[in-house]
Amino acid sequence: QVQLVESGGGLVQAGDSLRLSCVASGRNFGGYVMGWFRLAPGKEREFVAAIFWSGTNTFYGDSVNGRFTISSDTSKNTVYLQMNSLKPEDTGLYFCASGRDSNIFNPRVYAYWGLGTQVTVSS
After folding, report:
1. Using CA atoms, how far apart are residues 29 and 19, in angstroms rounded to an integer?
2. Residue 109 DSSP symbol
3. If pLDDT is split at 50, 70 and 90, which confidence band does 102 have?
């Protein structure tokens, strides 16, 4: 059974940093893309970042490019999202997801999802 478990969320002030973790288990994720999405009240699920399981090729949403960094540690079956210079508009429930489709920006193509970790940024 595939499981993605996120952690690291919390309440921070604008300008602070957080690092989210996603521990993946239940299958061999070689060839999979690992993505981070977020969901804010009243908004659609938004692509944040993605990385191939091997650690090659990273992708970022326009709103986080330059502030967030995605990375993976295959020895720990973990994907990280380092979030710097946080803004109130970064507030949301952050999900880790995994899939094999090349359309990595579309949440519908991801087969596996975690339950999410809440990030709240106060102004």
Report:
1. 22
2. G
3. confident
Distances (CA, A) of 109 to 4, 68, 88, 99: 16, 23, 28, 7
> Looking at this protein, which amino acid is placed at residue 35?
G
Predicted confidence at residue 12, as pLDDT, reads: 98
Reported as a single tens digit per residue, the pLDDT across 54-76 is 888 999 999 999 999 999 999 99
In order, the DSSP letters of 43-72 are S--EEEEEEETTS--EEE-TTTBTTEEEEE
Closest to 100 (Cα-Cα) out of 35, 25, 1, 32: 32
Percent pLDDT > 70 in the chain is 100
Distance from C-alpha of 27 to C-alpha of 67, rounded to nearest angstrom: 31
> From CA 45, how far away is CA 3, in angstroms rounded?
20
Q: How far, in Å, CA of 40 to CA of 54, rounded? A: 29
